[in-house]
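tool_call: predict_structure(chain=1)
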Amino acid sequence: MADEDLADVAHFLWEAGTLKAARRTGWWMAGVRDPESVAEHSWRTSVIASVIATLEGADAARAAHMAVWHDSQESRTGDVNHLGRKYIECKADPQEVTDDQTAAMPEVLRVAVRAVVAEYEAQDSLEARCARDADKLECMLQGLEYKAQGYESAQRWVKNSRARIVTDSGQRLADQLLAQAPLDWLRAAMGEKDRPGT
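tool_result:
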């Protein structure tokens, strides 16, 4: 493959970097002034997807790969929250955006990326369901963190996200997260005892 064949791949890598600055806009309605970026959300979603998939006996790498790409289209569309989507005549189809993003890429990459996004959107595989659950669990977890910072309105996101988790492992993890406080992991790592939820 010649270097010039990678020019459009390099363009996409620049484009993907914009997700580090793109904010998850739904959190603004909860009063969060500087919410997480799409890239931050996608990173933790990928970690969670690998965890859920492993627990479910699915291919963890494949689930994490889908989670990496699940919001990549937002470099072109922005993060449009659920209320905003109500007013948009033509909702951007993730597969169509991905097709456009990858159109000039080498065939091997174009085919691979499109297949990952199509599998995630179809939700026909266990790995895709694990990746979608990871997306919901990450949103729930972020909501719990924002609540701990004083954004009580984030409870709506916690509740709605928890209700959309379908895998057994995802549901059990959600229950564990709901039973903990954000710094319980640190207390456990430091060997502190008998201080749950503080």
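agent: The CA atoms of residues 9 and 105 lie 6 Å apart. Proceeding to next step.
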